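Annex B, item 7. Sequence and structure tokens for protein A, then protein B.
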Amino acid sequence: MHPIIDYLLQSAELTIVEFDIHERNEMQILNRTLPSYVMSYIKKGEAKLRIKDEVYHLAPGTVVIIPPHIEHDHYKETKDETIFLWCHFTYEIGSALDVLKIFNLPITFKLQNPEMFERVFVDFVEITDSQDFLIKTILKKAKSYEILYLLLENIMRSQEKVFEQDHSKGFIFMLTQIVKNPEKEVSLKELSNQFHLHPTYISNRFKELFGKSPIQIQRELKIDRAKKLLRSTEMTVTEIAQEVGYMVVPGFTRLFKSYVGISPTQYRNMNTKWNSNIPEG
């Protein structure tokens, strides 16, 4: 199981969208829903989190991880100072798959080594202000992955069931097959024959575990691959279509346009024009 998880984690890209360290005496964030994960760590003071009818009391050393598209309230009831280390992030393969869905992530948990986490997070914030391009690119990226590592490592040490359910392992294996070979056409019938499960059950279970059907994940991986090739290579549209598994260009163009809103050629021209306007040095 672990080699499969290892492959998925290595295939994903971490993007920290926003981050900061805040000292707050008052806070009233209500009915918020974000397209990214919300990570909030309480260094000092207290706060509360409400998701649906459940209220979580947050003390120093507590981490909150709220999945995307989950409505929540994050607030304080006292005037005492609270120090938050927070970030909004995604960890995805292309734009197709949220890899953290394979984990049984708790909404809140206590850090076993809060001092180390605080030090790494502060390093990450300070690196962002650096004028050295190597620090701002390579070291910042390394520190962002260290933050994620410390969070996941803590969860895996403290929880018996890290993954959703034992019987989800077969679906994680199916998912890995699709991620490894997105250009290889897949059908629910083929998956049904291979894993001896009903096609409807496979599709519904995928949606429960990963938020999308296997066909949708594969198509989005194809589109993500095609967009990268259009931006970064001189391959023709025909060659790119074949690279992502389409022998007939019109079929590829229809799929691309249905997801991106414009044709592959228009997408390439738009990105070529944008890149040519970036000043050198």
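Protein B:
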Amino acid sequence: GKGRLGTVYAAISPSGELVAVKRIHPRLVLSNAGFGFDSIIKTLSLAQHPNVVPIIGYSQAPGERIIVMEFVGMVNLDFYLHENSDGASLLDWNRRLRVAAGVARGIEYLHQGMAPNIVHGALKASNILLDVKIVAKLCDYGLSFLAPKEMTGLVGHVDDEYWAEKGGGACKESDVYGFGVVLLELLTGRRSEQGLLVRWALPLIKAKRFSELLDPRLVIPSDIKPVLRLAKVASACVGNYRKDRPSISQVASILNNLEIEVCH
């Protein structure tokens, strides 16, 4: 599959394992020629967490940068929610809550469990892979240095402050915003539409008009409280300036508790 930073291929490693190989777009390689690619990838490859896709190797040559990752499967959350005709029903409310909690744990690990801390930089549904057990795993983390100002595929997934000349760019707070957008996609079944989703959903959450907000392909759950709390968390993640947003740890703690209440 072709993405914002490169093209991903399924391949067989010398030991016979299926792996995912990401070839960074040559134009991005050239524009980052002086950047310490290998030291950054070495740091990223230390990440080991159930909700993070591990990087198992990399290769570089003139004009070429290749990253080898564990093969999780071909299906990302964006496909499940928006492309697959059965995807919505496969992802019932409980599974959506589990996916949300898993993503929050993965981000919390990158932000706080890794030294140095890792900012994802492009947190969105297409960078969340779902394995056969519908466990969410983050990919493409820490690679935003390759195309920091390329708007394609980022508009609507990062906050307005990201684009500011001074003090902008990727940071933990912009990841929290991106996570809020993912929550809104899980709640509504709609794409981010370059930021339109946030502008449409926030007033509905504020006015508690949940019959209009929630994904019409799913039956509204009999106990709507967990879904309302999810909506509240989404609103806190996207409805505030950076300095007023919750940290991913606060968010993960709420979602972990919700997951325990609902899914066990």
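Comment on protein B: The two ends are 35 Å apart (CA to CA).
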